[in-house]
Amino acid sequence: MPRRLGSALSAAVAAAAVVLLLAAAVPLAGAARAQGKGAKITLQAKWEGTPFLHEAAEFLADEDPALFWEFIDEWQEGLPGLGTSPQQCWAGIRAAAGARLSPAMARLLDVSLAARQYSARLQAFHQLAEDSAAELAAAAGAGSRPCCWALLNGQAYTEAGQLREAVHAALAAEAHEAGGGAGAVYPFDHVYASPAAPAAPHLNITAPGTVPVELFAPIGSLCGSQLHEVLAAAAARSDAAAAAAAAAGAPPPRRLAYARRPLFDAAACAGSEVQACTRLGTGERLVLPGYGVELALKNMEYNAQDDKKDAGTDKKQEGGEEEGGEEAAAAEGGADDDGSEDDGVLQARLPALRAACRLLKLKNLGLQAAQRVLNAAAAGPDQDPLAALQELAQDFPRLVRQVNQQKYGKSLRLAVEGLQRYVPAGAQFLLLNGLMLDTRDLSLYDLLDTLRAEVRLYDALSSVGLPPAQVRQAQLLRGSAAGADEPPRLRLPLQDGVLWVNDIEQDEKYEDWPADLNSLLMPMFPGRLPSVRRNVLTAVYLFDPATPAALDIGALARQADLQMWPLRIGLVPVVAQRAAHARGAPGNAGPKSGDAPSTSERMGRLLSLIYRAHGGEALAEFLFELRTGISPAEQQGSGWGELLWERASRLLAEQWEVWGEDEATAEQVLDQATAPGDGTAASLDPAALKLLDAAAELAANSGLAGKCQSGVLVLNGVVSANEGGGSWQGVTMQALQPQLQAVQEDVYMQRLTERSIDLLEDILKLHGSVSRYNPRIMPLDSGAGYIRISGETEEFAARQLSLSGPLLGPNATAAHPGTPDGGGLWVHYFGPEPSLVDDDDEGQGGQSGQQLAAVTHWVVADVGSRSGLRLVAAALQHRSSQGRVGLLVNAAGAAAPGVPLAQQQLLPIERVLVAVSAGLFDTDRSDFVEQLDTILQRPELPSELTLEQLDDALGVSPARWRAALDGFAGQLPAAAASQARFVRSALDLPRHANAVVTNGRVVELPGDASSARADASSAGAELEPADFELLELYAQRNQFLPGGGAAGGPGVTGARGVLAGADLSSTAAAVSSALAASKPADVDSRSGRVADIITSFSTQGPSLTPLSKPAQRLAPLLRFLRAALGTETHLLLNPQREYEDMPLKTFYRYVLPALPRWRRPADGRHHAEFSRLPGSKVLTLGMDEPEAWLVEPVQAQHDLDNLRLEELPAGQPAMEALYELEALMLTGMLCLDLASLQARLRDQIHPRGVQLQLLPLSAPPTAPPLVDTLVMSNLGYFPAQVPPRAVEAQAGAGVGRSQQAVHHCVLHRRPPPAGSGQRAAVSGADAHQVPVALTSFTGKHMHLFCVSTPARLYEDVLEAGAAGDGGARSGAKVSSWAGKAEAGSEPAVPADAEDGRIHVFTVASGHMYERLQKIMVLSATKRTTARVKFWFIKNYMSPQMKAFVPYMARKYDFDYEFVTYKWPSWLHKQTEKQRIIWAYKILFLDVLFPLGLKKVIFCDSDQVVRADLLELWNMDLHGAPYGYTPFCRQQP
Fold first, then answer.
1. End-to-end CA distance of the chain
2. Alpha-carbon distance 909 to 716, whole Å?
3. Closest to 394 measured CA to CA, from 1453, 1023, 1110, 983
4. Backbone φ and ψ of 1048, nearest 5°
5. 232-236, 524-528, 1084-1088, 1472-1476: which range is least confident on average?
6. Which are the contacts of 552, defined by CB distance < 8 A and separation ≥ 6?
7. What is the pLDDT of residues 1471-1489, one digit of tens each?
8. Distance (Å, whole) CA 694 – CA 398
9. Which of 125, 398, 615, 1281 suits a disulfide with 1223, CB 3.0-4.6 Å?
10. What phi and psi values does residue 1435 have, to the nearest 5 degrees?
11. For the chain, what percentages of helix, strand and coil (3-state, to nearest 5) are there?
């Protein structure tokens, strides 16, 4: 160490010792002040409290809709011994609801009720009731509002007799279109399912023949019970009629859709009609928990305190405070110097010594804080380490002196260093049952939703018979498997059919590159790829040569070749007709003799001839030049095919001789390309035709033929599509970077060495590969929660079921014993095949001796169709040692309601297949497949074959078949009915459906009408035997099966003794399906690696930095959950080892609900309470609310931006403030214009500037919107601030309305509750409006897809609005960005932007700046000749200022409006309040104001306007977006 540096450090240490001694020697001069003052902050909703009874019903509805109706019926009948006191009511509600839940879920119910989790949903129902005010007024007349009423066809009914007659008339009337708004049922409603509903077809709530009726009534009311009886009876009759019509094949009758909306109006239900317990939880404003409050030590860069006080009280602030003074004082213990001001040298060195002293004291705070928490853990059971962590994180500025004196041992430092070899220093996460959760924005309500999913999973696993230890191990499988569910790599046969552009190992231009694989590990400049003369990365592009994608891919190949990317590139031109022929699609025999070739065929021949004559480089150059000569607009023209061929012919004639000499001329090549038929008769080069056939076979056999229209990339076996119409360079680089990293890792770990001859083959062996890729089984975009960027919706999208409960559990799906009184499913399982590598113990299923199957396939087939019979044949050809196959015949005539089993109508082919699938008729598996193939070769449909015709194909004597089938007369109908009921009720599949269910994952397949299409886009419509191998691979990767194939791993094999006698294969499938169904939408891929490192985490494990903001929030949350649910918590401390600044400068409290007791409801008075705060420090209050909340202060006597608690009156121990939940956030991230996407207009995919309006459901089309918002070009993001309610989204007026229409809406906040049975989403007859329900405190995030009208496809919304529709556009107000005008202000946006008014924007925080802001407003109003409108940011205004502005506007005659904005969650957040305010000044200017506002002037709050602002307003900015005064004279 240099001498000077060592001396300086020694001096700093000495100074530190002096300071510590002085701090210790100071008597308790401030002892009287040490008690300090406090603060109390409360947050309330804008609505009154909702009944606990209704909230409990909503909790049950989310578990199972049937529980909701059971709970209502029981409560309506009256609980025995139920009293009327709050304690008795609470106990009754808890007992009635908890009896229908598991013990763990019942405890979670208590927490949910205490947190008032469902109050937002009940408030949304209340808003729907308010929307029906007109109907109520007509029904009630001049009387008071009724307590209960039903809405039917726009009329309100309060009497049971009148309602009965109206329902009868509505069901008997002609079909009509169900309208929206009042009198409509929506997916968020509680729709009644009568006992006859399971036998009836699914209720489509948007079908024209559906009669919607809604009942608004409190639970436990007499009027509600009477109306419910009428509607329930009518629904049962309509369901029974629908079931009978479906069985008879008759047209469906009208159906009643009865929805119950719990509603309690204290004024309307004041009589004895409502039980006393219904009122529990109401009567006052709803006070909310689930948010944080911080009091930050203010950084006094400048004095922001209100000086409107006696000057004598602020003398101590005259000199101001230097930046960071508060933090410095806290770190230094409050000591300054020893008072020896005569020593000039010491005085001069004192600032440097202070800085060095503060740095040394801050350096080890992380380790000291960790030691403090560890001491609490070691102190005994009376000490709680979580409590110590909470106190440390939330009150650190007060405890910094104590922490700074904490001693820590060397063992702690070594332990932290060891941990941080694997986990980065300061990294924080929360592992919940092995799944990693994001700790940054985790709120109470998010965590409750996550915990509820975990409890459901625990209950599902317990219901199949697993003991608690195995349930716990099974839950942890999800974390260990996270990150391992990437799609498998595809092994393509690259010997034929690929037109190679380059070969890095063979081409001369790469000869200077090093051949050593270790060169991949050398550091490179950012953006550059390592150059190694090995085919490390191999990219194969498959495309239809007659599509624009072919030109884009060829241009990319040319660019990569010229720039010498370290990428081997191969092109595969797939002619659509040849691919269909190679796939064996019906009716596709390839090009016919004499037929003119298609554009795809001609272009394919042309490309293969160019490649044969001049090589891959010439081919890439040809495609590049061809793309250069065709504009994007021409690519979308109606004559694209002819245009492409005309340009290609001309280019070939120009370039053929330039590429080099060849025997054939350009004219001869074109003649060969256009020859009729398949080209064999035109002396076409056989090798060129062989290339096209090989390319078609490659695409067909690999399963990628259907993706060739848009193009597909296979890079080192990883498949990527470009369905979004983006740049192929971007798609390639996005796929290339992770694959390069994977290869580098393999080289570093010595898995790839110089001995590797074929690198691609070795990579595929290392990572696993499949020979076929079926997008229906494993989509290209298979990430969890992925929404297809193309905006397309899958007609037969895969869905995951949990095989638990009475319909799908192991008891229901186990093989039927064949006896009349036996239970289970009539099904015989084929397989699994014996495995030579299985251990004897592992291969036996307990005492039964049955081999354990990890995967269970249920093949649902309509065997009367060719596609269904082919599916059965493919399934029986699949042989596996891990899986078994069960056939389920989806017989249309089976399981008809009300028809005796003996009278069930079965087709002959169905009778045969039921006998085989149920195990009634024993036949050889291979022989039966051959017999099915023979049946499929017959010209008749399988449904048309008689039993005599089947005899010839089956190769069995008619007498034997008849005798066998006659012998099964008592069992065959029961078996067919069992299978049909299971298919329709449990699997939720319609008649004539074909599907494969693999461990609960339903892959539905199209029928004959869809699968017989000739185009390549139908690839994957029918499954082949190899696809079942892919299904098992998907189950292994995504359904948490271990690689060895022992089903359920420790969850099943470890419980063999407990499950002895059970069907272990059914149990294994149930465990796998439950884990897959409970998989969150977004799983952090790091969960598996972290779980491996932190092996001690078993149930719930957070890794926290003690001195961090996440610790402030998570420590109290974890303590609360431990007390409420008994969760097991393992705390891992991961502190920063060195700090250079104060890590925490805030006092913090997180508000949690008070836990209810059995005989006492939860206390609803939640608030954040601070004590012992420093009275002399200036504090700033900040709200740490959930991302979905928008809150604002409504009552506060003090300046919340500049709090000095010592200024409180002597009799006031704490400062109090009241905040209010203003709105919830409705956001979207991916608003796609499908028309622009299809037209490949990449700049317009996100339709920027389009207005989205949210209207009440019952509002007429001309009604003003509740909220407007704009779509941003950045990710298509749009926000809206909406109170809890149901609304309709539509395109706004003006250019946005005429150019765009809301086409489709996918709400993906979370999947619907299991067992809901409602599959159809609401689309409605009017595609311009999409219903949206904001019913949760977690907000809602949704995706909207828009479609441009063809006439305005190429117009920019903003430019078109400015040019031709400016008046209409400027007349629209975007209140979600700009907020609502307060009462008394005029409309937000003028009818014309140039209306003579001057718009001034200003922002202020704190009482002093608000006082200066008033002066600025007054000076601007008096000095400006034009009328002025002021725009105030509402977020940080004090309640006093918001109340004063309307008064000031009336007195001084100016216009005003309050605007609000919520910082986007995806944008990096600032933590300091002042920086957030600066963002409003600069960053968010383009989204704060309506689109019609063309110009705005920003005036700082502390300015005094002394000139006419009209002069500044009229200044020409010369097209610049900003105009401002220069920062200094040297930069004019």
1. 50
2. 46
3. 1110
4. 75, -5
5. 1084-1088
6. 627, 711, 727, 728
7. 677 777 777 777 777 667 7
8. 76
9. 1281
10. -55, -40
11. 40, 15, 45
